[in-house]
Amino acid sequence: MRLDLITIVVDDYDPAIAFFTDVLGFDLVEDSPSRTNDGRPKRWVVVRPPGAQTGILLARADGGRQAAAVGNQTAGRVGFFLRVDDFDAAFRRMTAAGVEFLTAPRSEPYGRVAVFLDIAGNRWDLLGPARSAVAEG
């Protein structure tokens, strides 16, 4: 058993694909024509970090209720967690690409962390390994 996909509701496919692939460095796994349950055209768009098994289905908002959820899928909480091996490099690359960070990097018992917003306005934790005492001293 494994978690295959989670969904993030976005305003439009192409800017979301560009954010996740160009800015975050995810792979575009699939971008296929599809249909809604009532037969209208849509796209099936999946991105995922390189080497990861779990992906993100980027779903264009369909109707007012879904449009209202864009950027607020977890009611203002951090709902997504991106773990990287080199926190400082990822933070610099993302900052240079215009990613909005809501907090400065800080050290926690579980590692380095900074909160950022995705293209839809959802909150994410950028997570990295804890700094060693030698690295901090």
Overview features:
four-stranded mixed β-sheet; 137 residues; 2,3-Dihydroxybiphenyl 1,2-Dioxygenase, domain 1; alpha/beta; single chain; 4 helices; 2 domains
What report would you give on this structure?
There is one protein chain. This protein is an alpha/beta fold. It has two domains: 1-70, 2,3-Dihydroxybiphenyl 1,2-Dioxygenase, domain 1; 72-137, 2,3-Dihydroxybiphenyl 1,2-Dioxygenase, domain 1. The protein is built from four helices and eight strands. Strand 6 (106-108) and strand 7 (111-117) form a beta hairpin. The chain is globular, with a radius of gyration of 16 Å. The chain starts with a strand and ends with a helix. The mean pLDDT is 94.
Topology:
Elements: E1 5-10, H1 13-23, E2 27-35, E3 41-48, E4 55-60, H2 64-69, E5 78-83, H3 87-96, E6 106-108, E7 111-117, E8 123-128, H4 133-136
Parallel strand pairs: 1-4, 5-8
Antiparallel strand pairs: 2-3, 3-4, 6-7, 7-8
Q: Return the structural class.
A: alpha/beta
Number of domains: 2
Coarse morphology: globular
Order of helices and strands: EHEEEHEHEEEH
CATH architecture of the largest domain: Roll
CATH secondary-structure class of the largest domain: Alpha Beta
